[in-house]
């Protein structure tokens, strides 16, 4: 395809696939797109193992890594040890989570121990932890490094240029895009409020042209469209508005290769676009996830206010991981509570397919959309 990003990365189709699953990342890249591996929750040692595996299975095709260095987190600018972090979690929040779990016949006695295991996440949101992940990422032949929250830090941009790697940043408003353009990123990913995971409140249809218009006099930066995009015709629509390609995530969660909890995968395949909720209850920042009694509880009037990032994740993630494990084992209460990040495009994700089949469907659907649009202006 004639696209700047295709030429820049040596890919056949400007479809970028964010995933925490290495199999998905490698397969998308082998199929002609560009897989992007989510590294936030991993230790440097774990990231080294995952990227080494991708190197061995990607057949020399390009891929990228996604990290998170947000501007606003609790304790940013200071080194918080485990004891300090855990002391910042109010008893009210622990009690609330315990009540949700106990109502569904789930034991809560080991949650405090699980919170200790979650400390790697908080470390990765601090400068030292983020730098460790960046060092590992740049020691591999990646072609893209992306920052998912906040203005891309100068040290990341400097490391990217030194290693001839394109630096991308996700934005949810035109103001964010302007700041990223001034910071010097190479690619902007404009993610509408339909997106799964962290997202803003502006719809993709509005955000894409708004971002393109806002940055055109600052720098010539390609914009990738994101947010609810799970088909080639949606991708074509965004590119008709000026996007250079699509950044996707949710659509890969129901593929054969995805490591998504099977119960959650089945819920997604049955879900409509109305079965998601945008909430701060998982990480402390707004993120869209599949609705369940867990999310309903946090949206109720008697729920405590969400804590700032990363503290809220110490409230939610240990419990959600426990729920996932029990759901896999058939625990009925856990199966009801089980949830995961997913965008509103989930309503179009009705069949589990291989990654390669999804890429092929995107390409065919894109061509059909182009031909349909062309039919309106040609004889």
Which labels suit this protein?
379 residues; alpha/beta; 8-stranded parallel barrel; TIM Barrel
- Total of domains: 2
Strand content: 5-15%
Oligomer: single chain
Cα gyration radius (Å): 20 Å
Tell me the overall shape: globular
CATH class bucket of the largest domain: Alpha Beta
CATH architecture of the largest domain: Alpha-Beta Barrel
Q: Summarize the main sheet.
A: 8 strands, parallel, barrel
Cross-sheet strand order for the largest sheet? 1-2-3-4-5-6-8-9
Mean pLDDT: 92
What is the strand tally? 11
The CATH superfamily title of the largest domain: Aldolase class I
SS class: alpha/beta
Instruction: Give the uncertain stretches in residue-range form.
Output: 72-77
CATH topology of the largest domain: TIM Barrel
Percent range of helical residues: 40-55%
Describe, in plain words, how this protein is organized in 3D.
α2 (22-30) runs parallel beside α3 (44-57), α6 (111-117) crosses α15 and α12 (232-240) crosses α17. It is built from 17 helices and eleven strands. The protein has helices spanning 4-9, 22-30, 44-57, 82-87, 91-103, 111-117, 119-124, 127-138, 154-162, 174-183, 204-215, 232-240, 262-270, 293-299, 311-328, 332-337, 355-374; strands at 15-19, 34-38, 63-67, 144-147, 166-171, 187-191, 197-198, 223-226, 245-248, 276-279, 287-290. The longest helix is centred in the C-terminal third of the chain and has 20 residues, at 355-374. The protein is globular, with a radius of gyration of 20 Å. Mean pLDDT is 92; it is low at 72-77. The protein is α/β, with parallel strands linked by helices.
